């Protein structure tokens, strides 16, 4: 059996190989894009008004490829967890007893949830935690944050 190789056959084979390599690159590229697990919020926080010493939970649950790290910001600064303010296992922020002190010690403010995985990060809408005051008349007045 003889194998006849011509210039035309070699050119066609090289073109076929180029096309196959290009096709393999395209498939690999789109496969990696399609396998990308988009990060999105299942639950986002909402504005809330509470009385001083009330408990509050600001919801935040994100979906995407694990692991997903959840952090919270208050007035644009990272919330530091402690015995009064902590992040639940589902990502929500818990404040068992809201404080209305002056300055940074008050829990009143604007909060955002930051979810992050290896593909990127998403930031929730900014929500306002307002602490209401009750005066002698029984009317509830709100302290609005600017």
Automatic annotation (TrEMBL):
Listed transmembrane segments: 20-42
Cellular location(s): Membrane
Domain Ig-like residues, every copy: 37-130
GO process annotations (BP): axon guidance; dendrite self-avoidance; homophilic cell adhesion via plasma membrane adhesion molecules
Gene3D superfamilies reported in the protein's UniProt record: Immunoglobulins
Key words, A-Z: Disulfide bond, Glycoprotein, Immunoglobulin domain, Membrane, Repeat, Signal, Transmembrane, Transmembrane helix
Molecular-function GO terms, alphabetical: cell-cell adhesion mediator activity
Pfam families reported for this sequence: I-set
Gene Ontology CC entries for this record: axon; plasma membrane
PANTHER family named among the record's database cross-references: BASIGIN RELATED, FASCICLIN-2
Name the UniProt record assigns to this protein: Protogenin A-like
High-level lineage: Eukaryota, Metazoa, Chordata, Craniata, Vertebrata
